[in-house]
Amino acid sequence: MAENSGYVKEEQGADPERAREDADDKADESDIKVTIGSPGPYAGMPKEVLLEYSRKRGYVLARDILTAIVVLTILVLLSLVIAIMVISPACLEFWQTSPIYEIYPKSFRASDDTNGYGDIKGIIEKLGYLGDLGVQIVSVNSLYESSQISNDYEITDFRNIDPVFGSMADMESLIVSVHDEGMKIVVDFVPNHSSSRHSWFLASSNTSHPDHSKYRDYYVWVDGSENDPPNSWMSADGNGSAWTWSADRQQFYYHAFSASQPDLNLRNTAVRNELKDILRFWLEKGVDGFRAIGTAYMLEAPHLRDNPLINSSLPASRDNLYPDFTMHYKGNHDIVSEWRAILDEFSTEPGVFRFLEIRDEGTQNTLARYYGTEFRSEASFPRNNLFLQAAPVEWNARDLSGAILDWMKIVPDGRWPSWTIGDQDYSRVASRIGAGKSLLAAVLYMTLPGTPTIYYGDEIGMEDARGALPDSARATMLWGAGESNGFCGNCTAWTASVAPTASKTTEEQQGDVDSTLSHYKALIAMRNDMIFQRGYFCMIGNVSDTLVYVRELRGLKSMLVLLNFGIEQSSFDLTVTHSSISGHGTVSIRFGSNHTLNAGDSIDLRRIVVPPLAGFILRMDAGDELLSESDTMNGKCYIHSKLCYNAGLQVLEYC
Fold first, then answer.
1. Residue percentage of the chain with pLDDT more than 70
2. Is 80 exceeded by the pLDDT of residue 541?
3. The CATH number of 199-254 is which of 3.90.780.10, 2.170.120.30, 3.90.400.10, 3.40.1190.10?
4. With b meaning 16 or more CB within 10 Å and e meaning fewer, what string describes 610-636?
5. Is the bond preceding 229 in cis, omega lying within 30 degrees of 0?
């Protein structure tokens, strides 16, 4: 068979009419200029020829081989993907990967000069600052409509915004703006009590109110005589009896806090349903989670017996009573698990999880119970009060190492710890323990396993304002120059501000690489390192008055943290007591002013010198044996889930 040139040859004996049409076509084509050497029109390979070639053994074999290679490649890649999915851990949730930034809205930023209060629009204005800081979670203290008697926690409407902060439209704008910045928003949830001016209490306390029958049992009412309270229970705010007489109802009502904050009756199913509806209301608005406050006081013993005295020779008082029947009473965890179920209703979409933090008082063991059990989930984590409640003299390597290990032993396996050094009800950390130690405290809670919560202003080292707690810890934020330090344009702030000489503003610290703000930024960025989010925490402990611990992960270089909380220089050799530590470490970040080393400098781990009130984070080569694998470190190393880093695949895997 002759070779087919790709042109179709006219057959003999063709139809005359067809021949005439072809002649006309050729006449038309004669007008077309063809460039010499250019190919003519290509009609393609005829079907018969294509089939003939495609059936030849060589072509069939080549086609089968190529098909097999493609199929095999797809299967290998699919198997590899499945294998990686099987051996790799799930991604961390948003509340595990970022610090939480807690805002007291009255004092954060006022968008206008109308009333001297910080507001929602002021928070929106500063979202860029928070993004630059590196945080991805904004936790806003109570914004709800309130009687404003005790700073926002005497709520008169759980579903509305107090006018001093703005409107519901402003709140909706804040939620959208936070999400537009790639952040999450957490709001307060106050389930224990309402304001005495709440419509529920007004109806419950007034027997002639048209809705009295509906709300009669929304609060805790007990029979008695006016001058004879039912028992010795005392209010948590230290203002005497937890019972107040209602002349209208001729009964006492219970209040764990002030008389203007009556306790809700959470044994009443209708009240519990109201609280669940409040959660749903804000979840539908788009919030990403809640910080539940006052949960310790939600239930009281129905038998109303006196709380036992601590010292029987002294009269009953808040500090001389064991709160056996008024705090963390049985049934509390049932309520919290009900909330978790509501949050789970809004966590069904891929990548969506609604966060719940319990912020309360109690022993470490009591608080750890709010993690729930393997059969019933409760909080994402309870707030750990360890650093808030540590006395100034306890901020030393010996006491801190012991306290941290005690808490890590209590946290249930597979659960996530939390840490904080500042809060609206505690003196600011820079005032509590001093500016030098407060910077080391920042390094500590940013590099421990778990989620740190930054109280607004701590990132610039703000100190207490003039006056008494709690207002002294709620001073207006120091943004920049001017009479109000940038809190507002020209207003009289609702509370005192910190003296300009005591703390530098964010504006002053922005360009200073050694400022507290710059150190916080560096720490938050470093915390994104896989080793700090996923790695082992191993407490070496008190070494010559320096707190020493390691963060490590098989397959990566380990991080050594050295913090000298003392007033004397500390010198030691780590290789003597820990054979898995050897060689040199490279400075990643250094803290304090009493040093000569800088980032990138090398330190011989046999001759470590840490100046007073200073510290280092060193990156060091991991030896054949990790510290967490050493028998000498039993009970001193912890990890959320045991992982290794596969350098070949560049993925985390279970090991």
1. 92
2. yes
3. 3.90.400.10
4. bbbbbbbbbbbebbeebbbebeebeeb
5. no
